[in-house]
Amino acid sequence: MRRRGFIAASAGAMLARPALAQSSWPDRPIRWIVPFPPGGSTDLWARLMSEPMSAALGQPIVIDNRGGAGGLIGTEAAARATPDGYTMLFTITVHVTSPVVLRRFPYDPVNDFAPLGKLGVTPLVLCGSPSTQGNTLAEFTEWAKGKDLSYGSYAPGSSGHAYGQMYSDEARLGMTHVAYRGEGPMLQDMIAGNVACAFHSMAASGGAIRARRIRPLALSGTRRLPSLPDLPQMEEAGFSKRFAFSGFIGLLAPARTPQPILDRTAGLFERIMADTNTQRRLLEIDTIPAWLGPDAFREDIVRSLREWETIATELNLFVQT
Question: DSSP state, 310?
């Protein structure tokens, strides 16, 4: 009887441990993996959101920049992390685009993660570098014809890669793609005039764009930018509707993270997104707030993956690694 009672008590204690761990979460720093180097737009958004989230949780949130392979390295690390609430992933549309284009699926973009919230979207701005000519898209395109030029992207398989290739194809420019390990390195090469053009986010490159260190020509998506209200969309400039593709910016956790931790994080994220100060800070960097909760964000990820597979097939946008 004593042994049977001891076994029952031990089993009960073991079952209680996860609940105790969840109820005390977080009791140490949390790590947000950003699958790009510091200085890019994803890094900036992550840091902007981690500040109020850290204050609400009472624990530091450490940004872990793990760039490379179009975001696959950092994302795979997040997928394989212990699902205890202490490792999360702050990412963008490369979450679904890179595996498709690179034909490598070291993680399942849908089933290996628990979506927590979508922050919003941001149009990408096609910019010309100082080594080029033309103040409008039409002028730039005319200048570029017949020249041996290259366009940059912040990652192979990214939407910036696709937009660059679509522009090159539709304008019949035959430009060469140059992939970088993030937007920061790409911006440096653009300012130096080492590539002719690239699609940039205003979050990371807005200062250089507004200072005309690189010239804005047109933008992707379906909404104009608050700070560049006269800049036309690619479709308005005569290019195809494929440039209307819009992805996401958001926070995810590894699948099988305890539901109470997911619920608390998602609730805080939603509360922070509803704050007028957060909205103001996002709009200041031309990021359009478009909150989606966990279930709707999952549907948005599935939609983005499906649409991207179609675009990649149409463009034959596959990268040999």
Answer: H
Q: For residue 253, what is the DSSP state?
A: E
CA distance 254 to 90: 11
pTM value is 0.83
Q: Which amino acid is at 99?
A: P
**Is the CB of residue 248 less than 8 Å from the CB of residue 90?**
no
Q: What is the DSSP string of 197-231?
A: EEEEEHHHHHHHHHTTSSEEEEE-SSS-BTTBTTP
Report H helices in the chain: 2-23, 41-57, 72-80, 94-102, 137-144, 159-170, 183-191, 202-210, 259-274, 276-284, 294-315
pLDDT of residue 20: 43
- Residue 106 burial by CB count (10 A; 0-12/13-18/19+): exposed, middle or buried? middle
Which residues, in sequence order, are CB contacts of 289 under 8 Å at separation 6+?
119, 120, 273, 278, 279, 282, 283
pLDDT reported for residue 17: 44
Distance CA 184, CA 43 (A): 10
Domains of the chain: 29-121+246-315 (3.40.190.150), 124-244 (3.40.190.10)
Q: What is the DSSP string of 160-197?
A: HHHHHHHHHHHTT--PEEEE-SSHHHHHHHHHTTSSSE
The gap from C-alpha 316 to its chain's centroid, in whole angstroms, comes to: 22
Q: What is the pLDDT of residue 158?
A: 85
Residue 116: the pLDDT is 98
Residue that is written with structure tokens 């420019």 in the block: 173
Place of tokens 């597979």: 309
Are the C-beta atoms of 45 and 119 separated by less than 8 Å? yes
From the first residue on, what is the mean pLDDT of each consecutive set of 10 residues in the chain (321 residues)? 40 44 85 94 95 97 94 97 98 94 94 97 94 97 98 89 95 96 92 97 90 96 88 94 90 98 98 96 91 98 94 85 61
Q: Which residues pair with 120 in a beta bridge?
A: 249, 289
